[in-house]
Amino acid sequence: MTTTSATQSAPSGASGEDRPELAAVGLGHGYGDNEVLGSIDFAVARGEFVCLVGPSGVGKSTLLRCLAGLQLPRRGSVQVKGVDMKAPVWGVAVVFQDYSRSLMPWSTVIDNVALPLVAAGTKKKDARVAVLEALEQVGLTRDAAEKYPWQLSGGMQQRVAIARALAYKPSVVLMDEPFASVDAQTRADLEDLMRELQRELDITVVLVTHDIDEAVYLSDRVVVLSGSPASVAEIVPIDLPRERDQITTKATPAFADARARIYGLIRRVPVDTHE
Amino acid sequence: MIAAQAGVLFLGVLIWWAVSTQVPADGVPSPVETSGALVALAATGPFWLAVWETVQTFLIGILICIIVGVPVGLAIGRSRLATQSTRLSFDFLRTIPPIAILPLVLLLYGPTPTMVLVMVVLGAIWPIVIQSVYAANQTEPQLDDMARAFQISGWRRITTIFIPGVLPFVLTGLRVGTTICLLLTITGELLGGAPGIGSSIITAQESLNNPQMYAYVVVAALLGLIVNVGFWAAQRRVLHWHPSFRGEGQK
Lengths: 275, 251
Prior knowledge:
The structure holds two protein chains of two kinds.
Chain A: H1 2-9, H2 14-18, E1 22-31, E2 34-44, E3 49-53, H3 60-68, E4 75-80, E5 83-84, E6 92-95, H4 99-102, H5 109-119, H6 124-137, H7 142-145, H8 154-167, E7 172-176, H9 184-200, E8 204-208, H10 212-218, E9 221-226, E10 230-237, H11 253-267
Parallel strand pairs in A: 2-10, 3-8, 3-9, 6-7, 7-8
Antiparallel strand pairs in A: 1-2, 1-4, 4-5, 9-10
Helix pairs in contact in A: 5-6, 5-8, 6-8, 10-11
Chain B: H1 2-22, H2 31-42, H3 45-78, H4 80-94, H5 102-109, H6 113-137, H7 141-149, H8 154-192, H9 197-206, H10 210-238
């Protein structure tokens, strides 16, 4: 009796700390007869940056939608801090691939970013403070805040989408190929921004990408998906320092090793770099 | 742009004037005669009463079309099954010329504004319903995902995401519907004999007062112009963010 109440009243105790921030447990999904995801198992610890990679069509986006609670998996479950997720939950924010379609063109940047907060009942004044803070974190000026999304460049629009996620004060941010439709320089800037924010705000990031270099550069660990229906081929730990740099980090042997290994896993070509 | 429009208008009046000199006497009054008649008419009570009858029927008609047509269209458009199962019926109903039901409504309501109203609504509601169905079909799925992921629901989701998203299509339907509504109001009055600009045209014709008849025709055209220009301005204000209007407001 006493033991039960003790564990219930202290979910943040020792056992709570051990629980992963986000986990896929035997997760499977499909559309009609087409099984997309076989049985996916992986767990993301608090403050971790994890990328999901795999060949195109492997079901990365489907998996991310399940993780976001936008889709209920056919089998298994998604757990947030050990609790089964049945629908989108507060604390898990999503950055969608296509910023031009996930931002409302009829609202200003500030209103776009504020909407989730206002919908959650935050007072207008408090929401404005949180929004301006989030916009500053992603490097957008006050001037940009008053504009409409379509008046901004693609890279800036994706910053707005990131700010919207951050203003929500999430513990987990899920990103679906967020940098796929911006130019290379902007992409590098946004990658560095995300790493910086992830450490600064102590958030957990799960990012889907088809770009192996991007996955290695960003991640603490890379979850490699392959096969049909897809399963986790391997979870590759990335042995790179926390401080990373677009040029020097990508020139290190550790970076090249990780890239070759993941490339091999996706192509199903055995690569014996560590044998 | 405005100069070009004025130029074309002037050319039109010139052609009208040229025609009026060629046809037998009194067939087509000249622009000068017509404007003279219009000025004389504008000083009379019956003229303004006729204009008011037409405007009133038109406004009530378009209001009914909007209040009924838009929500019905949007509700149908939200459901795939409803969209597909109603498509055939709508295509059937909208191809019936509204004039074809004139004998029926005339029999039911006599030459009254109600008769015109029924005909107007039955004729003008279809483009509004059909465009609203399209509008609700074509909402952005990424915004739906966004709303769900950030738990924006209920009334707030409807007012901040759904309504602005369907507005471009709905307004296109309203624009078409508004024009049809005005045309049918005047046609109904003209053919059915209900009071208004339409029946005044007939009365003037029957009393062989051609300049006055043309004056009423000009008034009907002016009314159409006002409605269209007003609608265009309103649409540009409401949809300032839409790709088709972007940049116009911020020169």
